[in-house]
Amino acid sequence: MSLDNRPVYTGGCQCGAVRFRIEGALGDASVCHCRMCQKASGNFYLPLVSVRGAKLDWTRGEPKRFRSSNAAWRGFCADCGTPLTFEAPDGIALAIAAFDDPEEIAPTIQWGIEAKLPYVDHIHELPGEDTMADISSSSYLADLVSYQHPDHDTEQWPPEERS
Ligand SMILES: [Zn+2]
Ligand SMILES: [Zn+2]
User: Fold this and answer.
1) I want to staple 32 with a disulfide (CB 3.0 to 4.6 A). Which of 37, 58, 128, 162 is the partner?
2) Which residues does the UniProt record annotate as the domain CENP-V/GFA (predicted)?
3) β-strands 29-32, 109-111 pairing
4) Ligand nearest to the CA of 16
5) What percentage of the chain's residues is helix, strand, coil (to nearest 5)?
6) pLDDT in tens, 52-71
């Protein structure tokens, strides 16, 4: 919460070169299956939440942008590639998984279902395993050191001991 009790959200890209802060209520949260959102995210669909009614600040760096149509720009981290924004004339939406606490932003609608990939509705039916369940065939997991920016703001990134 901010001083005047407005909700505050933070997030950023995987490498930490780009960080954002949102003050105020988030708008509609959705997933979009359209072919452009598939390509822009390199994924089956793109989860986005509108921030058009809130105050958005880039607190470290800023996204690079690709103009994906005459109406929209797609923002992403130029250093690590994390998809970050969808920017249209009616406002900006941010990628939900880029938030520090994405679990509190649940989508309420699907768009672009004409392009929905045929297996997407069955992912949850697949067998599931923890990351470490694969350790016998991927021994590097035992010594894994993450270089991903943590899920909170930092004074300095990357930390000095690594740079
Ligand atoms: Zn990055
Ligand atoms: Zn889309």
Assistant:
1) 37
2) 9-112
3) parallel
4) 1
5) 20, 30, 50
6) 999 999 999 999 999 999 99
Give strand pairing partners of 111.
32
30 CA to middle of ligand 2, Å? Answer: 10
Q: Is the pLDDT of residue 163 over 70?
A: no
Structure tokens at 134: 């694969």
C-alpha 39 to ligand 2 mean position (Å):
9
Please provide the average confidence, as pLDDT, over all residues in the chain: 94
Residue 161 confidence (pLDDT) above 80? no
DSSP classification of residue 146: -
Nearest to 11 by CA among 91, 104, 88: 104
72 Cα to the center of ligand 2, angstroms:
10
